[in-house]
Amino acid sequence: MRGGSGAQQVIAMDFSMEMLKGAKEYCNDVDNIIFAQGHAVNKNLDEGEIDVLLERALIHHISDLESCFHEANRILKSNGKFIIQDRTPEDCSLRGSTTHIRGYFFQKYPKLIDKEVKRRYSSEQVFSTLRETGLNLIQEITYWETRKIHEQIDQLKIDLLNRTGRSILHELTDQELEDLVEFIEQNVEKLEPIKEEDRWTIWIAEKQ
């Protein structure tokens, strides 16, 4: 089986060998993916090797955005596309709703929002850094991505209590987490299934 939306070859990269191991097991029936260890500022790839580079949920982990984008420019072919997907402070600050469950985290515990926003780059920061590193912004879009569909409220509660894939919840004590789950349950009561969505911003740039 081939993957990568028609790409002849896909390079899946992460700094963590454990993450790469899990990804390789998940994609064990796909025959055109190479798994490689690398870093956002040093991908160990040849100059001008890549047609399309996607960095998903990465830049909020990077303190040196300029070096990250310089590396992207280095490995991209001429007119190559650079796609960045992450959350801005505005994405993180949206109020909770029956689909935007994450928003309830910050309504219940405002102390979490400062930590969450502090590590996020604004659209203006992304745009200016792209320009400074020789990358031309073509398009910026926001969209809602379905994180998970919970057939019953109990499934959502279990997911939250286990802090599954939600690093910000590790800032809470066990009691605070239980109180948060109760708060969310009160806001989405009798709504099943629960379609949980997160809002992202995507920037599409091109090497000049």
Keywords:
Rossmann fold, four-stranded mixed β-sheet, single chain, alpha/beta, 6 strands, two-stranded parallel ribbon, 208 residues
Strand order of the largest sheet: 3-4-6-5
How would the global form be characterised?
globular
Helicity level? 25-40%
Number of strands: 6
Percent of residues in beta strands: 25-35%
Order of helices and strands: EHEEHEHHHHEHHE
Low-confidence stretches: none
- The third-level CATH topology is Rossmann fold
The appropriate CATH architecture is 3-Layer(aba) Sandwich
Q: Given the helix and strand composition, which structural class is it?
A: alpha/beta
Per CATH, the class reads Alpha Beta
What average pLDDT do the residues reach? 92
Rg, rounded, reads: 19 Å
Number of helices, counting only DSSP H or I runs of 4 residues or more: 8
Pfam families: Methyltransf_11
GO biological process, one term: methylation
Keywords: Methyltransferase, Transferase
InterPro entries: Methyltransf_11, SAM-dependent_MTases_sf
